[in-house]
Amino acid sequence: MLAKRIIPCLDIKDGTTVKGTNFVNLRQAGDPVELARAYSQQGADELVFLDITASHEGRKTFTSMVERIAEAINIPFTVGGGVNELSDVERLLSAGADKVSLNSSALRRPQLIDEITSRYGSQVCVVAIDARQEVDGTWRCFLNGGRVPHEKQLFDWAHEAQERGAGEILFTSMDHDGVKQGFANDALRYLSDNLNIPVIASGGAGEMEHFRDTFLHGHSDAALAASVFHFGEIAIPTLKQYLREQQINVRL
Predict the structure, then answer these.
(1) pLDDT tens profile 176-188
(2) Active-site position among 11, 45, 51, 213
(3) CA nearest 170: which of 30, 50, 26?
């Protein structure tokens, strides 16, 4: 069985790392380059960098920050925010990213997934999905950092993204984001069991048990978290040792 991955996430706004709850009430969490370097040294499996206001503000992810982070780490590096066309992908890969994450741009123009994977391969393309569960139990997708609801629903959109060539799905439950009560494991399990590509769990990590549960019960391939790492609540080496003791295959 492939090793489960632990992925810190740097949400960047105005050049600094921030973290909120349910996508709002952002607070500062430190210098992104220093955090990235620390996570690489601590044994994180990958790093995700998201310019969280790029799509909303209609601008590009700032390349210089990507270059500085890429120089500071030696683990796979995914970058998202304001990726709207092939030239954006080329720019970020040239700056040191290993993968790009698409969210709003892919919902608006799904063909972008086909274009990227045809040019660069599926392994470069991560489709991030922000979704919130509605009263009737369906999961509605959202654009622009959770600001704008979209007609597509989580499971249908994830399947379409896979069919278009996406290499991974990064699913964030907006209801669980920053609440620290655990991941949306029922939805994650449905995704993982019905897709042929890896699913990354995002939104809800508060304790080491939550990581265990999303691997065992959510069948997630990777778990992404931010504030528990940024504010020193969980240390990555301690988390990995705990998971190994729980019979979960992780790289130490």
Answers:
(1) 887 899 999 999 9
(2) 11
(3) 50
